[in-house]
Specification:
The complex is a heterodimer. Chain A has 18 helices and 9 strands. Chain A is α+β, with helices and mostly antiparallel strands. In chain A, strand 4 (about 120-125) and strand 5 (about 135-140) form a beta hairpin. By secondary structure, chain B is of the alpha/beta class. In chain B, about 35% of the residues lie in helices and about 25% in strands. Chain B contains 9 helices and 10 strands. In chain B, strands 6-7-8-3-9-10 form a 6-stranded mixed sheet, with helices on both faces. In chain B, strands 2-1-4-5 form a 4-stranded antiparallel sheet, with helices on one face. Chain B is globular and about 55 Å long. Classes of the chains: A alpha+beta, B alpha/beta.
Chain lengths: ~600, ~250
């Protein structure tokens, strides 16, 4: 019993200490964030707040065409010695009378106006002979167009007649959109399309990348040392062959596309050829293993067909660019459609060598993985071990030399011994040691390594906001919406790839197990068991990202990324709060309506 | 002939011994029931046979092919000969019944054509025939999660049949179904066993099902084989050995 009491006392003291600690943390927070209540109460600050709130409450959206009325009155100050005789005012229009008719500088006078527009306001100025107007006060007419203003004459004594001028403006016609509103509209359209392009581009890359960062997909991938060393060595070779093949095909395509009819004819014939080739080389179903000769023949046909596919991509690219450019003049205002087609063709031409290099690397890596497996299974231990030693040394050296080259490119050491020779030696030794230490049948968790690298990369890049990333892109492609699109797209890739991969990890394991049990290979398992399960979360995260991108694209202009933020920050810097207010309103409307639309779509899709 | 030799499985982490030195042969065409308490290693045993679970030691032979030594490519050829039916059916919910059944053919079709979701015409016809055979030919285009439990398990059986299997591993195929449905599913398995001569390894909970359908029973307790014989040989002593001293026979 006593023990229990003691313990509860201890607990209370501990709780008290925790509360105290929390209070201290918050106190320090107040200190470092400079919470300053006096400042908020200061009249000057309060006036400023009132002013900005009032400006924000009147967004610069509508405007009237204005007509300016100027009413003048001759004035003498001081009174000339021989007195003043002013001409009778023209009472048919607006006129002013000053009492007294003349007065000393710095003396108070009353200015009265008649026949003005009712209920208008404007400045009341004093114009000396120099023509530089001095504001004395303001006028505000009543419903009859009459005003009385008591003002002080400025200290500008002169012998000749000077002038008091009332300037009033009158709206003519109905309200129409102001220049600011029109600019805001153009920029908000730009903003929405920035979000659209960034989301599309980002998601297109994030989806395939997400599989590489999914633990349940990647961890089962293991390979023996021989396979891994071979793969590291053949990866750059495969990429090189792929890129080379693409360049040859581009040269061939350039010859074919000189004449549009040849281009069209080639495009009409080659895809059919590819179809028949693939049908032959890839039989839909095989119960028995084919003979060696047949397999080699199929491989050769597959290689030829891949070359033809690359050629077709180039032909399509060239055709799209040609058609697109040809469409620009006849389409006139819709010329951007032609430009779009041409740009798509250009993009296709740009990514084809990249894809080809990727496929080349992939094919060679997977082939060398199989070769490695075969060596492990079919060669003697001694042979396998010595092969491992050679391959491990070479792979380690190649890997470290590539890393060194990368580092050299970034930091420009320009020292071959430091960036090439030493890393290659270190890598070679490490590879050799690994080859000796590891059992030749041991399986290395290569999938887990890729998973870890991808996750780390995503988490690292994700923590850099696109508002910061855009700075790099503005340097690369210049200030403007394109830089914003690229920055948003990059952030979309890294953050959505992570979100997507978590969804892949969360799928039900049962169907995966069932499809694996049928003998499906990894690719088939992904297509038939994983993809159907991840479609709803992928859609939902894509929508979520779209919301974020709309929001971000509204402010990415702060950092030079184009869109409405660019206009907003300009107006804020110019203290043009009424204009800024219009842009804030536009942002609010767009973000809220996109939110609404996407939530409706999400309901529909799932 | 399916041969299991000295199969041991230790799950890491935790060093949980799930199977210990399990050996038996299953001759072609046998209906073999595997019984035992939950956690006795029934599921692990079935999954070690097609290496959904990697055995720690021991060997599995299917017609003299060493399953435990097969590499990925060889495993594909072995797995397509072994159909599997699951307690929770393990259908892909958002896919159609037909797609789920066709998935049974994935071990045969060229992966390249799977990429574009193409199955040979003969396979599609075959899938329809299998669905007819399990009595749900009209459900081919329904989403799998719109079916009842019993119907889903029939889809599971049709999927296994698509593999033209020599062996079917059925992991508690009726444990999530009510007794009436349980018998109908067991009858399909029996029919496949008798008509097609497919070896069936079926883990079961209820002894009455064992008596009704099995040619032979293997009982596991804590990963060890404690009984291997005919169903009628399970007397009260054996029963206590299998299910523990506190267990009581029901029915």
């Amino acid at each position: 019993m006593a023990m229990k009491k003691q313990r509860s006392l201890l607990k209370s003291i501990l709780l008290g200490l925790v509360i105290l600690l929390v209070l201290v943390i918050y106190a320090y927070g107040f200190q470092v964030t400079k919470v300053n209540l006096d400042e908020t109460r200061e009249p000057r600050r309060q006036t400023q707040l009132t002013r900005i709130l009032r400006a924000l409450a009147r967004p610069d959206i509508f405007t009237y065409d204005k007509e300016e009325f100027v009413v003048s009155l001759a004035v003498y100050t001081p009174c000339p010695a021989d007195g003043v005789t002013l001409p009778e005012p023209d009472t048919s229009g607006p006129y002013m009378i000053m009492t007294p008719v003349c007065a000393d500088p710095k003396s108070e006078v009353t200015v009265e106006g008649f026949n003005f527009e009712p209920n208008i306001e404007g400045p009341l100025n004093f114009i000396p002979p120099s023509g530089v107007s001095l504001q004395m006060g303001a006028i505000q007419t009543d419903a009859d167009g009459h005003f009385i203003a008591t003002v002080e004459l400025p200290k500008r004594p002169d012998t000749v007649a000077q002038e008091i001028r009332a300037v009033t403006r009158r709206n003519i016609g109905g309200p129409h959109f102001s220049k600011n509103a029109i600019e805001t509209w153009a920029k908000i359209v730009e903003t929405v399309f920035m979000a659209l392009l960034a989301t599309t581009l980002g998601v297109a890359i994030a989806i395939p990348a997400s599989f590489l960062a999914a633990r349940n997909i990647m961890t089962p991938i293991t390979s023996p040392f021989t396979s891994m060393a071979l793969s590291i060595l053949t990866l750059p070779i495969g990429a090189f062959i792929g890129a080379r093949a693409a360049l040859w095909m581009r040269a061939l395509s350039d010859r074919l596309t000189g004449n549009i009819w040849v281009n069209l004819l080639a495009l009409a014939l080659i895809p059919g050829l590819i179809w028949f080739g693939l049908r032959w080389a890839l039989p839909p179903e095989e119960v028995k293993k084919p003979s060696q000769g047949l397999r080699i023949a199929r491989l050769l046909v597959m290689f030829a067909m891949s070359l033809l596919v690359i050629l077709v991509l180039f032909l399509i690219s060239a055709l799209m660019m040609r058609i697109g450019q040809a469409l620009v003049p006849p389409l006139k205002d819709l010329g951007f459609l032609g430009k779009f087609v041409a740009a798509l063709g250009d993009i296709l031409g740009l990514i084809t060598p990249l894809l080809s290099a990727l496929v080349g690397a992939g094919v060679l890596v997977s082939a060398s993985g199989r070769l490695g497996q075969w060596i492990v299974e079919h060669s003697s231990a001694a042979l396998n071990r010595s092969a491992n030693l050679v391959l491990g040394t070479a792979a380690g050296a190649a890997l470290f030399a590539m890393l060194g080259a990368g580092i050299d490119w970034l930091y420009q050491f320009e020292n071959l011994a430091l960036t090439l020779v030493i890393p290659a030696i270190v890598g070679g030794v490490l590879g050799a040691v690994t080859a000796i230490v590891l059992s030749r049948r041991a399986t290395l968790p290569i999938g887990f390594v890729i998973y870890t690298i991808m996750r780390t990369l995503f988490n690292g890049l994700r923590s850099i906001e696109s508002l910061v990333m855009v700075i790099v892109f503005t340097v690369w492609v210049g200030i403007g919406p394109f830089a914003g699109v690229l920055a948003l797209a990059l952030h979309t890739i890294v953050s959505n790839a992570k979100l997507y991969s978590e969804q892949v990890e969360a799928i039900m394991a049962g169907p995966l197990e069932a499809v694996t049990a049928t003998g499906a290979n990894r690719l088939q398992t992904i297509i038939y068991a994983v993809i159907p399960q991840i479609i709803p979360p992928y859609i939902s995260y894509t929508m979520y990202r779209w919301d974020i991108n709309v929001r971000m694209s509204t402010i990415i202009g702060f950092a030079g990324g184009g869109g409405i933020g660019f206009l907003l920050i300009q107006n804020i810097n110019l203290l043009n709060y009424r204009a800024a207010s219009a842009q804030m309103l536009a942002i609010a409307v767009v973000v809220a309506s996109m939110d609404y639309i996407s939530s409706k779509l999400r309901e529909k899709a799932i | 002939m399916l041969k299991i030799q000295h199969l041991t499985k230790i799950y890491t982490p935790g060093d949980v011994l799930a199977l210990e030195d399990v050996s038996f042969d299953a001759p072609p065409g046998q209906f073999l029931a595997v019984i035992g308490l939950s956690g006795s290693g029934k599921s692990t045993l079935l999954r070690c046979i097609n290496r959904l679970v990697e055995p720690t030691s021991g060997k599995v032979f299917l017609d003299d092919i060493d399953v435990t030594a097969a590499n990925n490519d060889e495993m594909r050829l072995i797995r397509r000969r072994i159909g599997m039916v699951f307690q929770h059916f393990n259908l892909v919910h958002r896919s159609s019944v037909l797609t789920n059944v066709l998935a049974g053919r994935l071990g045969y079709v060229n992966p390249f054509w799977s990429l574009v979701n193409r199955f040979p015409k003969v396979d599609v016809e075959k899938a329809h025939r299998q669905l007819e055979r399990v009595g749900i030919g009209d459900k081919a285009n329904v989403r799998a999660d719109n079916l009842s439990g019993g119907q889903q398990q029939r889809v599971g059986i049709a999927r296994a049949l698509m593999q033209d299997p020599d062996v079917i591993l059925a992991d508690e195929p009726v444990a999530s179904l009510d007794p009436v449905l349980a018998h109908s599913i067991m009858q399909y398995l029996e029919k496949i066993n008798k008509e097609d001569g497919v070896t069936v390894l079926c883990s079961l909970h209820f002894l009455d099902l064992v008596h009704r359908y099995a040619d032979r029973v293997i009982a596991l307790n804590a990963g060890r084989v404690v009984f291997d014989g005919l169903p009628k040989e399970i007397d009260d002593v054996k029963f206590k050995e299998i299910y523990g001293q506190d267990a009581e026979r029901v029915g």
